Amino acid sequence: MDFKHISAMPREVMAYLDPKPGGTYVDGTLGGGGHSALIIDRIMPGGRFIGVDQDMDAILNARERFSAHGDDVTLVHDNFANLPAILAELNISGVDGIFVDIGLSQHQLEGSGRGFSFMKNEPLDMRMDARGDTTAEDLVNTLPEKELADTIYKYGEERFSRGIAKAIVKRRETAPITTTLELADIIRFAMPAKAVAKQKIHPATRSFQALRIAVNRELDRLERFMDDFCGLLNPGGRLCVLSFHSLEDRIVKQKMRLLASGCTCPKSIPICVCKNEPKVKLLTRKTIRPAEDEVAANPMARSTRLRACEKL
Ligand SMILES: C[S@@+](CC[C@H](N)C(=O)[O-])C[C@H]1O[C@@H](n2cnc3c(N)ncnc32)[C@H](O)[C@@H]1O
Description:
Blueprint: H1 10-17, E1 24-27, H2 34-43, E2 48-53, H3 56-65, E3 73-77, H4 83-89, E4 95-101, H5 106-111, H6 136-142, H7 145-156, H8 161-172, H9 180-190, H10 193-198, H11 205-215, H12 218-232, E5 233-243, H13 246-261, E6 280-282, H14 292-297, E7 305-311
Parallel strand pairs: 1-2, 1-4, 2-3, 4-5
Antiparallel strand pairs: 5-7, 6-7
This protein binds S-adenosylmethionine (SAM).
S-adenosylmethionine binds at residues 5, 7, 28-29, 31-35, 52-55, 58, 79-81, 101-105, 128, 221.
């Protein structure tokens, strides 16, 4: 397994998460284990680390990488949306910090063979968790045209979604669409040539992102996690989130702001009647972006955004 991975914004993550020696910390997205290694370095000896990933490849990699830490490191093959149940199962009632770095690992993109990239011809799978019940192939070959268009529009913010969905449905009437390059080609030829020529990104980028988000129900699971994280933190405990696109960042921003204001009254009411107290303090008012030197060394980090908050 090739787990070469450059972890995004390592300095900033460590500064905002600020792991304390002897503390209990969760990394909800182990990936190649780069950020986890930094956290473990800070909290050991005496700390407790729980690493979660829905991709078994990441768990196997971490098992090897962190084996020297014995029972101080627990690795769990699950979705971070299930963190309340994961911690309950481990009899952990509160943690000092949670980190999540949402999105794809370099291994998934380049070495998993699961069709996340349109740069190689692979089966259209796109499941991060091999136990998931729906693949990208299922979606492109079975979703009704309108639902397919809506998915590509909503999760890919692709303005040519209708034409793309129409072309996919037309092609699948002849034979099922089964590979990444086949799908990428259909998408490219469904878009106006002028628009394709103008774009800086590959014409299939947004549609592939949309399918991946739908296959893994990424936004629903992020929302569930953001609803629960505060109840899992000890007072003074921190959440630090790296996201990769605006759909994720919007969810993180809205949930953090809601908890920081406390008030859940509708906007139409001029004064607060709910009297709910703030539950967190925002550590980042705006998103933090990677420094220029990092983007120069690792162009993949360009879209990364960091937000963090601390439980009161
Ligand atoms: C960007 S990589 C993480 C990279 C990691 N921070 C590092 O330093 O190597 C994202 C990882 O999160 C996992 N992942 C994404 N969403 C998840 C979720 N909801 N639950 C669990 N794992 C998730 C993916 O399987 C992938 O391995």
